[in-house]
Amino acid sequence: MRPVEIKEGIFWTGVVDWNRRNFHGYSISHKGTTYNNFLIKDEKVALIDTVAEEFWGAMQCNLAHVLGPEGKIDYFIINHLEPDHAGCLALAVEKYQPEKIYTSPMGQKAMQAHFHYKDWPVEVVPTGSEISLGKRTLQFVETRMLHWPDAMLTYCPEDKIAFTNDAFGQNWATSERFADQVDRTFLEDLMKTYYANIVLPYSPVVLKTLKALEEMNLDIDMICPDHGLMFRGKEECKWVLDKYVEFAEQKPKKKAVIVFDTMWHSTENMANAVASGLADEGISVRVMSMKSNHHSEVMTEIFDAAAVIVGSPTHNNGILPLMADMLTYMKGLRPQNKIGAAIGSFGWSGECVKVLTQALEEMGMDIVDPIKVKHVPTHDTLVQCYQQGKDIAAAIKAKLD
Ligand code: FEO
Description:
Elements: E1 4-7, E2 10-12, E3 15-17, E4 22-23, E5 26-27, E6 33-35, E7 38-41, E8 45-48, H1 56-67, E9 75-78, H2 83-86, H3 89-96, E10 100-103, H4 105-115, E11 122-124, E12 130-132, E13 137-142, E14 152-156, E15 161-165, H5 184-199, H6 203-216, E16 222-225, E17 231-232, H7 234-249, E18 253-260, H8 266-280, E19 284-289, H9 295-303, E20 305-311, H10 321-333, E21 339-346, H11 352-362, E22 366-367, E23 371-374, H12 379-400
Parallel strand pairs: 8-9, 9-10, 10-11, 15-16, 18-19, 18-20, 20-21, 21-22, 21-23
Antiparallel strand pairs: 1-2, 2-7, 3-6, 4-5, 7-8, 12-13, 13-14, 14-15, 16-17
Helix pairs in contact: 5-9, 6-7, 8-12, 9-10
The structure holds MU-OXO-diiron (FEO).
């Protein structure tokens, strides 16, 4: 994709990765992503972030479109060192020989650890620092742990743009560049997926950072994340900022997710009985087999659910491996405000619900009594599962009403 002038003298020079499918275990399905970066032409020319290393050729091409083949870049601004954004940094330093490379205090440490540089002209810009490009100023705000310690935001007051790096991103490869050009419902869904699978553990930091930004009273009329669509206009910016507050507060809906793996369908039949009990009480239910769903799809559904019911038969004195994977993934993302329950069938030793319940307890969930069934559920034990669904529904209502 060719560069796009997003405001006078400011260009999107990123790349579209149509075929990316996975970020460290987070499946982005068939949507791909973009690595956005930005070139500002002023008395000094500044580049904000790079792109993934395999797109070095495309990035140079885009920069040459704006600057000409021998174009010079004076300043690099590196908001985040993860290789999808800083992957071309070493190549770009060699080619463009920048006068300065600006990054956060933690960014400088990460830059050293990634690139082991000796004589790069790195200058640390903690929160409150600013530089002049001539007509424009760039101000820096550290956004530590959103989602790495090095993360920072760059704000241009003259153009009212916040370059926010990973924050407010979505993984969606599109030919459109702005959020107002695409379907809003789908965009919001992808923002939610991105938040649930990347940003969720840092929700307290999100709230703190948004509050700090509000107190700084930044006048923002464009938000440019490093992934996906950008937001232009005050209303759009307010929408996306409010959306992040909503995500970070993790207020659950009247919704339950039953996630399970099954050996010979006993745990699956139990899951369906629990689902009926929940649905009959008016709770919206998702029943998700780990054989049919990626753990990141399950996590997106769990994100705004009030209850999580996990199911596995006993397997080698523990649980089935796909459920162990799911629990590890979920625990790392630290979902809050959930009710949890376990179900499972067993043949002889029967550790499944103990293992599952312990995992839910470690995530701080409010536990509803588990149910385990020997080999194959009977009509009566399925009624017990149905009743467990009703009990979980009552717990959800008691919590939310
Ligand atoms: Fe998009 Fe943290 O990298």
